[in-house]
Fold:
Amino acid sequence: MEKLTPQEIVDSFKKTLGDGFVDGKIYEREVAVKKNRYRRIWLYVKREAFRDAVQHLSKIQEYPHLVIISSSDLGDEVELIYHFTIYYGYHLEEISVGLRVTLSKKDLKIPTITDLIQGAIFPERETQEMMGVEVTDIPDGRRLFLAGDIAEGVYPWRKDETGPEKYLRVLPGRKPKGKE
Amino acid sequence: MAVNETEKTTYTIPIGPIHPALKEPVQLVLEIDGEQVVNTDVRVGQVHRSIEWLGMNRNNPVQSIYLSERICGICNICHPFCLVLAVEQAADIKVPDRAEYIRVIAAEMERIHSHILWAGVAAHEIGFDTVFYLTWRVREEIMDMIEYVFGNRVTKAILQIGGVRRDITEEQLPRLRQGLDYYKSIFEQLRRVFLEDETVKMRCRNVGILSTEDALKLLTVGPTVRASGVPKDVRQDQPYSAYADLDVKAITPDIVTGTVVGDVYDRIIVRLLEVKQSVEIIEECIAKMPEGPLLTETKMPRLLKLLTDAEGEGVGRVEAPRGEDIHYVRMESGVSTLSTWKVRAPTYINLVAIPTILKGMQIADVPIAFASIDPCMSCTNRAIITDKATGSKSAIGYEEMHRLSVQKTKELLR
Structure:
């Protein structure tokens, strides 16, 4: 298949997803002496369109490489970014794609993509235990890294009351965070 | 149900969490049918140390560089490298050209020592201890070079946001070249030991096969995916730093053998050739290295102020010895720590492929097949490994597994 330019990729997402598409940005950076370009696309989609977006990406590149799911606590919302790479295997042609979804803290659910990308299981399990985002229909929902002595409902990456504060040991001479 | 589908009882062998096949904590729960592995469950997290949490709550980004250096003893260039790349993107900091080349030299020296270390471990896993001693002696040369150039054998503390902290001077180059010449002279011997030896072939050919399709589906990275015939290498695909000036080509095993099997033997080929490639990259870097400053911002208080004010996000991608390493960083203005820091080490994603690699293997082949992805648990768990962690309760210990592996080699030699 013909390789698309970053702008064409953003446009094709816009066309396919319709209302589910929120924003698409292209980031470029010149690298080292020869000034070759480092290219990255940021896509921002609604949750309803998220699975369609991954499916559309699989059409652009057979086996898109899911690198990781990163998540940030933004206060009332949780932002998930699915980092993909496409067009790998060729010199200077790879493009990174960051697929961004924000979820309200009242309804932290995201559909699984393990049926589309088999290897997504570890990142999904990690997001589930660390951020408290429920991955619906996940084939294996066990914890990945956290040990059994950490209670249910404690999510280490959160910055609100469900964070791991109560597990912190405050060393002598140090003040606990937020307490003067 | 057809007659040949009658249910057979399988039994489960937990290996680990301590010393499964490498000396790092991970638990493999093998479902065994006779001598064959039917299914594997990988359980990680025994030594999770919450390094990302520290970077998000306690440290400023400059302190996080040194913390990320301690994610893993072997990959102590690629983790800070990734972090500084991400922070530079987020805060929009340019890096001087000379610093880009020094970073690449450091990263390639790390790759040489890591691959040779792995070759020794792999030889040990199949009970070939003479080769283990040979390769680790060969590795000492690169460790001495690293100490000579960067002042320390392990944690080099060379990277800084916006450049590097120390220069490689003109006087240091002869010693560097001498070391590189040594590796070029010894390469042929290593090649014969690993690729032409019948025992190594018998133990590694058709063991731990990962097909091209599975490798892509299971998102494997680094030498593991390249040995399955996919020319995927960040240095080639989306070059960062000075790699953008050097035309690095991903190495796949068909360069040597003409075919891709995707087994342990192919992974040996890839790693061995990458050592040679790294030597060439360092030579090219030394020849091309431009003159100039090392740091964009030399005053630490100003750098910290700049980082506190920065707003944005960045992704650093580095081809570590084991595969692609990635750090995602989000920075908010007025927050002195990183507001999000996500680390994905290569072993994290390579472990997903372990059940497929081990399927159908004999128990005696598990150590070498598992070691063939060069698993680095400290990277995956982001934690320090201590010797305290002994007292394994597993039904089959590492020593027993190792004994089985050695025994198999001996039987083959008969």
